[in-house]
Amino acid sequence: MERIIRPVSRQLLRPHLRYPFAIPPTPAVKRLYTMGHGRPELKDKSLFIEKCYINGEWVGAQSGETFEVHDPATGQLIGKCPELAASDVEKAIQAASEAFPSFRTTLARERARMLRRWYQLMMDNAEDLAKLITWENGKPLADAKGEVNYAAAFFEWFSEEAPRIYGDTIPASVPGNRVMTLKQPVGVCGLITPWNFPAAMITRKIAPALAAGCTVVAKSPQETPFTANALAELAHRAGIPKGVVNIVTASHNTPSVGELITTHPDVRKVSFTGSTNVGRILMKQASSTIKKVSWELGGNAPFIVFDDVEDLDAAVMGAINSKFRSSGQTCVCANRIYVQKGVYDEFAKRFAAKVKDFKLGLGFENGITHGPVIHERAVDKVHEHVQDATSKGAQVLIGGKKASALGPNFYEPTVLAGMTKDMLIASEETFGPVAGLFPFETEKEVVELANKAEVGLAGYFFSGNVHRIFRVAESLEVGMVGVNTGLISDVASPFGGVKQSGFGREGSKYGIDEFLTVKSVTFGGMGEPLQA
Ligand code: SIN
User: Fold this and answer.
1) Where does ligand 1 bind, in terms of residues with CB under 6 Å?
2) Of 296, 429, 443, 514, catalytic
3) What pLDDT digit, counting tens, does each position of 15-67 carry?
4) Measuring CA to CA, how many Å separate 380 from each of 217, 375, 390?
5) Which end of the chain has a smaller Cβ tally under 10 Å, C or N?
């Protein structure tokens, strides 16, 4: 995306803090830009790396090409990363292939120790990692710190799973036979990750892969490559052998890099988190070599509040947490908030009051609760959803506009009431800070509406009736249900969807299975009696 640099006052603003967008800033914004929102100071400056990590070394593209990464809050240049071509990534796959035979035979306990050391290094460098996340993703620093803990937890969790990869002994149905199973690493894994959790989406895939004994080539997102690079540096310090973890970057070459990863015969497994549309393309490509795949794709989560809710304030907070986490940019964010008629007006009033208290701004500033969205395309989509809803009769309770005074990537946290099923938000994931409140009458009606979506990642509801809780939890066509909570993400809980939200599970005791194959071993001629 091209950005126009037009500083407003060279005297007023320090040179590296010039307002970089085309729209002239308001006095409030000028103040923010002069308050020091520039390059964050890292305690360990060597964690900021403008290269790729291949075969244990920091390298650039053979072509020498790079791409620019910009702070979504200010538009300032953060740095540049190598624009790898498929031929560069081929080297990473080769490194991972060469490292695999010896890594697969390391003792599980040794792999556990590596992951534990990586976990500890993440915790020791949590502040710097959080700064990198806020810088390149825009989320408030407190949220970024939360993400670092969440991300590191996958290393801790899978360090504990690695030594517990048990097979079975199976009673055979053929006389004289004995059957057992071995669980073995699938091989080289291609991991393709998104920008909304620059640390956690990478660790959630790498941790189980390494625990299983696989080696990896991870393609980090073009918007947020620096957090991934810092993680690679920490992998190096944790003593993870060369070639086991490779992190590659690309921007306009992303489609050809993705194609290589999904078609290369030496890559045995691909794990992807991203949109359903890209998932469809990658799945087609991966079919050429019949790879094992797991896809975590888009959602359009229903969030239902029934009249029999025990604590309406808790439901309001649940909806706030679910809808506005990361400014609405998670796959599990509530997208359609259905509220039963008896509590609708009161819920809408309390919900809008909470959103009014949000502080929108630059993620490094104190007290900011919500940052920008990732780029202008995201703002445009949010605005399109709002305009579509209002043109069809929805009322704006709060927000409803671009917050252009802060910069082109800011959108006012928005609450819309009087939503109906013909509006875009009813069928499309907004992935931004807009909450649409849909009134409904009956349980049957709302479950049908919730299940109308082609996707099925997360779903939430608030109710105080235990019979209803079981009925509705069992009826929602989603991979994850939150009952009386709006936050379900937890390393211990299986994460994944059904329908066009994909398949496979991440985290939890199931996550490691995605990186293992089950081999049965049958022993014949074993049924002889004891020898006299
Ligand atoms: C996602 O948006 O894909 C992940 C969200 C989470 O782990 O909570």
Assistant:
1) 196-197, 273, 296, 330-332, 489, 495
2) 296
3) 334 444 444 445 445 544 444 456 899 999 999 999 999 999 999 999 999 99
4) 33, 9, 15
5) C
